[in-house]
Design goal:
Blueprint lengths: L15 E7 L4 E5 L4 E8 L2 E9 L6 E11 L4 H4 L1 E6 L2 E6 L2 H12 L7 H5 L6
Parallel strand pairs: 4-5
Antiparallel strand pairs: 1-2, 1-5, 2-3, 3-4, 6-7
Length: 126
Protein backbone atom coordinates (compact mmCIF):
# COMPACT_ATOMS: atom_id res chain seq x y z
CA UNK A 1 0.00 0.00 0.00
CA UNK A 2 1.39 3.41 -0.95
CA UNK A 3 1.33 6.33 1.43
CA UNK A 4 -1.04 9.12 0.52
CA UNK A 5 0.85 12.39 -0.11
CA UNK A 6 -0.40 15.36 1.86
CA UNK A 7 0.43 19.01 2.54
CA UNK A 8 2.70 19.58 5.55
CA UNK A 9 1.65 22.04 8.28
CA UNK A 10 4.30 24.62 7.41
CA UNK A 11 2.86 24.89 3.88
CA UNK A 12 -0.74 25.56 4.96
CA UNK A 13 -2.28 29.05 5.07
CA UNK A 14 -4.47 30.30 7.92
CA UNK A 15 -8.10 30.67 6.99
CA UNK A 16 -7.83 28.76 3.71
CA UNK A 17 -10.18 25.97 2.75
CA UNK A 18 -8.58 22.61 2.00
CA UNK A 19 -9.85 19.33 0.67
CA UNK A 20 -8.89 16.88 3.40
CA UNK A 21 -8.99 13.20 4.13
CA UNK A 22 -10.29 13.04 7.69
CA UNK A 23 -12.44 10.83 9.88
CA UNK A 24 -15.56 12.98 9.72
CA UNK A 25 -15.12 15.51 6.91
CA UNK A 26 -13.76 16.11 3.45
CA UNK A 27 -13.25 19.90 3.71
CA UNK A 28 -11.79 22.08 6.43
CA UNK A 29 -10.53 25.59 7.22
CA UNK A 30 -6.95 25.60 8.53
CA UNK A 31 -6.43 27.01 12.05
CA UNK A 32 -2.66 27.00 12.67
CA UNK A 33 -2.91 27.94 16.35
CA UNK A 34 -4.83 24.70 16.95
CA UNK A 35 -2.92 22.63 14.37
CA UNK A 36 -6.38 21.67 13.14
CA UNK A 37 -9.04 22.15 10.51
CA UNK A 38 -12.45 23.55 11.40
CA UNK A 39 -14.89 21.13 9.78
CA UNK A 40 -18.63 20.58 9.57
CA UNK A 41 -19.66 17.42 11.38
CA UNK A 42 -23.01 15.71 11.65
CA UNK A 43 -23.57 13.39 14.58
CA UNK A 44 -26.91 12.13 15.90
CA UNK A 45 -28.65 14.62 13.63
CA UNK A 46 -26.74 17.65 14.95
CA UNK A 47 -24.52 19.74 12.65
CA UNK A 48 -21.63 21.45 14.44
CA UNK A 49 -18.07 22.71 14.00
CA UNK A 50 -15.54 20.03 14.81
CA UNK A 51 -11.76 20.18 14.74
CA UNK A 52 -9.82 17.53 12.86
CA UNK A 53 -6.12 17.67 13.74
CA UNK A 54 -3.36 17.67 11.12
CA UNK A 55 -1.73 14.32 10.46
CA UNK A 56 1.62 15.62 11.78
CA UNK A 57 0.10 16.87 15.04
CA UNK A 58 1.53 15.15 18.14
CA UNK A 59 -1.83 13.87 19.30
CA UNK A 60 -5.20 13.03 17.76
CA UNK A 61 -3.89 13.23 14.19
CA UNK A 62 -6.98 12.67 12.05
CA UNK A 63 -6.68 14.82 8.90
CA UNK A 64 -4.47 14.86 5.83
CA UNK A 65 -4.79 18.01 3.71
CA UNK A 66 -4.75 17.06 0.04
CA UNK A 67 -5.48 20.27 -1.87
CA UNK A 68 -5.74 24.01 -1.24
CA UNK A 69 -9.06 25.23 -2.63
CA UNK A 70 -9.58 28.90 -1.75
CA UNK A 71 -9.22 31.59 0.86
CA UNK A 72 -12.26 31.28 3.10
CA UNK A 73 -13.95 34.32 4.64
CA UNK A 74 -12.97 32.98 8.10
CA UNK A 75 -9.85 33.03 10.28
CA UNK A 76 -9.20 32.23 13.92
CA UNK A 77 -10.78 35.53 15.01
CA UNK A 78 -14.07 34.29 13.49
CA UNK A 79 -13.64 30.90 15.12
CA UNK A 80 -12.58 32.04 18.57
CA UNK A 81 -14.15 29.68 20.96
CA UNK A 82 -15.55 30.01 24.42
CA UNK A 83 -14.45 27.04 26.45
CA UNK A 84 -16.23 26.21 29.66
CA UNK A 85 -16.66 23.21 31.90
CA UNK A 86 -19.96 21.89 33.13
CA UNK A 87 -20.03 18.83 35.38
CA UNK A 88 -16.37 18.21 34.57
CA UNK A 89 -17.02 18.09 30.80
CA UNK A 90 -15.22 20.52 28.46
CA UNK A 91 -17.64 22.39 26.16
CA UNK A 92 -16.74 24.61 23.21
CA UNK A 93 -18.83 27.30 21.52
CA UNK A 94 -17.68 29.04 18.36
CA UNK A 95 -18.39 32.56 17.23
CA UNK A 96 -20.00 32.81 13.82
CA UNK A 97 -20.87 29.11 13.99
CA UNK A 98 -23.89 29.21 11.66
CA UNK A 99 -21.99 31.22 9.02
CA UNK A 100 -18.99 28.86 9.14
CA UNK A 101 -21.24 25.79 8.93
CA UNK A 102 -23.16 27.26 5.98
CA UNK A 103 -19.88 27.87 4.14
CA UNK A 104 -18.47 24.39 4.85
CA UNK A 105 -21.75 22.63 4.08
CA UNK A 106 -21.72 24.09 0.56
CA UNK A 107 -18.65 21.97 -0.07
CA UNK A 108 -19.58 18.90 1.95
CA UNK A 109 -22.96 18.58 0.28
CA UNK A 110 -25.76 16.40 1.57
CA UNK A 111 -24.58 13.84 4.12
CA UNK A 112 -26.25 11.29 6.29
CA UNK A 113 -25.35 10.28 9.82
CA UNK A 114 -22.86 7.70 8.54
CA UNK A 115 -20.60 10.45 7.23
CA UNK A 116 -18.91 11.15 3.91
CA UNK A 117 -16.28 8.39 4.13
CA UNK A 118 -18.96 5.71 4.32
CA UNK A 119 -20.54 6.99 1.12
CA UNK A 120 -17.26 7.21 -0.74
CA UNK A 121 -16.73 3.51 -0.18
CA UNK A 122 -20.05 2.86 -1.89
CA UNK A 123 -21.73 1.53 1.24
CA UNK A 124 -24.07 4.39 2.05
CA UNK A 125 -26.95 6.04 0.29
CA UNK A 126 -26.11 7.46 -3.09
Amino acid sequence: MTKQPYIKMQNLKEGYLYRINARNARYGIWIPEHQAFATSRIKFGDNFIFEEFHWDCESFATAKPLEELEKSPFTLKHLEETIFKRNGVRHVRYRYGPEVLSYLNKFEGERDYLGPAWRLEGKGKS
